[in-house]
Specification:
By secondary structure, this protein is an alpha+beta fold. Helix 17 crosses helix 18. The strands form 4 sheets. Strands 1, 2, 3, 4, 5, 6, 7, 8 and 9 form a 9-stranded mixed β-sheet that branches. A 4-stranded antiparallel β-sheet has the order 12-13-18-17, with helices on one face. A 3-stranded antiparallel β-sheet has the order 14-15-16. It is 39% helix and 21% strand. The protein folds into 4 domains: 241 residues, 2-Layer Sandwich (BirA Bifunctional Protein, domain 2); 107 residues, no CATH class; 61 residues, no CATH class; 142 residues, Threonyl-trna Synthetase, Chain A, domain 2 (Threonyl-tRNA Synthetase, Chain A, domain 2). A hairpin with a 4-residue loop joins strand 12 and strand 13. Bound molecules: alanine.
């Protein structure tokens, strides 16, 4: 079975069980200030897991591309990826534990025909916040799982969420698969044995973590599940290495061809190259460009990581357009993501630009590194200079030091970086951890202000203005849009004036649900990448603004206060950034 077949099978299975297919969200979450990337399928669903009614109902199914920056350092082994796909089914206050377990078991053992002998489960052993989950264990047993294959584990393993500091969370029950083909699965499940690979997580969302750090029973009990596509495909095809599966192999073969070397002898390097370029293609397709902060920095770091490894296996990068050749392969494999192909030119161009930039300083930087490392150690100042002047991401410095046996403590780099915080907000911002946006009154107001800002920009600068990114904290909104010059003071004043005029009109904001096609035809704006036949929410502010969005928004604009632009600056080439507040 290949990737596309699995996605189809999973979504069809749950559609038959009355689940509605939801869209695959962008890699960069909208209106969520606490995370850089979408880390799980549940993330775009947070308002609905917290009680807001979802336009498509209480049973949902979907595929989500996810990025977990915390996993980047693990890349190089057989199962970790910077960008991976997760299939999930959700119950928003509908079915709970019993059905979730039954569905997962039926899908794996009946639809996918995985023998139960190769499966094992973990369930929550209980702590001061929540009891031991004997119920889940009993349910697994009733379905035919041997008691010896069920392990009770603590919070570290069997608790999921909240993704940020507050919000929906709960214990979970996870499904593991014995990956070795030659050695039969042991009768007793040992979760420490790495040959058991986690493939599916069923989160039993019964709790809400409050600001005070308390776990209280949630008003709505949800199910949130996630099945890793890459891992499941590996399992189904008897592969002990994910990179031999259909969504990786052609990329690896391309790298073999470009380097004239074999995967067998260069596994780690080739995995990192394939992984990093794939993730870079998806991030670039969502409008992010390499930079020194936030998502742009992660992107820079992975592109440079890929280039470093291409050099290690002696690929003549510039002569043969290596990163572009590999990126083209990625776009070809994922042809079901139409936005990759429609953004192909930009993706290839940005990769090339970053490649050129890095190549220009790389040799000098490597020479500098060798000089610095003569005394067999590199201190904070030196490492920060490598970052600042030669564009070496921290990970590359760590890797080089390891490679050459030079003493280096990343903490020294971080200390130095904190001193230069204005230059790099990324590593210290704690944003690599996953998290959720709050739905406080202040962020809700700013969210509505974001819609109004876009509408005003379209009026003042032209209808071709579109959103390229958005980030809201309780203090301010930040909005990126396509525009290729500085706005004049008059234009800024005019945008402010229009937004404030509309705020003062006291518009009631209406929400309607309709199919995406209809929403688009009605003139609603919104970033929607995928072919999507489901229903979306459209928020309308009188004749002024109409956007596809999950909300939440204020009920009446009169509550918002006064809109003020604090800053208008360049975000990246062709993209401007506005920071604004409501006072
Ligand atoms: N949200 C859960 C996870 O990511 C399903 O594992």
């Amino acid at each position: 079975m290949n990737r596309k077949e699995l996605i189809k099978k999973y979504t069809e299975f749950f559609k038959e069980k009355n689940h509605a297919l939801i869209p695959n969200a962008r890699t960069v979450p909208e209106n969520d200030p606490t995370v850089l990337f979408t880390t799980a399928g549940m993330q775009p669903l947070v308002p609905f897991l917290s009680g807001q009614s979802h336009p498509q109902g209480k049973r949902l199914v979907g595929l989500q591309k996810c990025i977990r920056t915390g996993d980047i350092e693990e890349v190089g082994d057989t199962t970790h990826h910077t960008l991976f796909e997760m299939l999930g089914n959700w119950s928003l206050g509908d079915y709970f534990k019993n059905e979730a377990i039954e569905y997962a078991f039926e899908f794996l053992t009946v639809s996918l025909k995985i023998p139960v002998e190769r499966l094992a489960m973990t369930v929550f052993e209980g702590n001061e916040n929540a009891p031991r989950d004997n119920e889940a264990a009993e349910k697994w047993k009733a379905l035919g799982v041997s008691e010896k294959r069920i392990a009770f584990l603590g919070k570290k393993d069997n608790w999921w969420g909240p993704a940020g500091t507050t919000g929906p969370c709960g214990s979970d029950t996870e499904i593991f698969y014995w990956k070795l083909n030659d050695i039969p699965a042991p009768e007793t499940f040992d979760p420490e044995n790495e040959n058991w690979v986690e493939t599916w997580n069923n989160v039993l969302m019964e709790y809400t973590k409050t600001k005070e750090g308390k776990f209280i029973q949630a008003n709505q009990k949800n199910i949130d599940t996630g099945m890793g596509v890459e891992r499941t495909i590996a399992i189904l095809n008897g592969l002990e290495d994910n990179y031999e599966a259909d969504m990786w192999k052609p990329i690896i073969e391309k790298i073999e061809e470009l380097s004239n070397r074999t995967y067998k002898e260069n596994k780690r390097e080739m995995r990192i190259i394939a992984d990093h370029i794939k993730a870079a293609v998806f991030i670039l397709a969502d409008g992010i460009v390499p930079g020194n902060t936030e998502q742009g920095y992660v992107l820079r770091r992975i592109i440079r990581g890929a280039i470093r490894n291409l050099r290690k296996i002696e690929v003549p990068i510039l002569e043969i357009d290596a990163t572009n050749e590999i990126a083209k392969k990625v776009i070809e494999i994922y042809d079901d993501y139409e936005h990759l192909n429609s953004n192909k030119e930009t993706i290839l161009l940005e990769l090339k630009k970053e490649e050129d930039k890095f190549q220009k300083t790389l040799d000098k930087g490597l020479r500098e590194f060798a000089k610095m490392g003569k005394d067999n150690k590199i201190d904070g100042k030196e490492s920060f200079l490598l970052y600042q002047s030669y564009g070496f991401p921290l990970e590359i410095i760590i890797e080089l030091a390891k490679e050459k046996g030079i003493e280096f403590n990343p903490e020294d780099f971080k200390k130095e970086e904190r001193k230069h915080q204005e230059l790099s907000q990324t590593a210290s911002a704690g944003k690599f951890k996953s998290g959720l946006g709050d739905n406080s009154e202040a962020t809700t107001k700013l969210h509505t202000a974001t819609h109004m800002l876009l509408a005003a920009l379209k009026k003042v600068l032209g209808d071709e203005i579109n959103q390229r990114g958005s980030n809201i904290t309780p203090e301010r909104l930040r909005f990126d849009f396509n525009f290729d010059r500085k706005m004049t003071p008059e234009e800024k004043a005019e945008v402010e004036r229009i937004v404030n005029e509309e705020i003062q009109k006291g518009h009631v904001i209406t929400r309607e649900e309709m199919p995406l096609k209809e929403a688009k035809e009605s003139g609603a704006t919104g970033i929607f990448d995928d072919k999507y036949e489901g229903v979306v929410s459209v928020y309308t502010i009188d004749k002024f603004s109409k956007e596809i969005c999950t909300g939440p928004h204020v009920e009446n604009t009169s509550t918002m206060g006064t809109f003020k632009i604090k800053k208008e600056e360049s975000s990246s080439s062709g993209v401007r950034r506005i920071k604004a507040v409501l006072i």
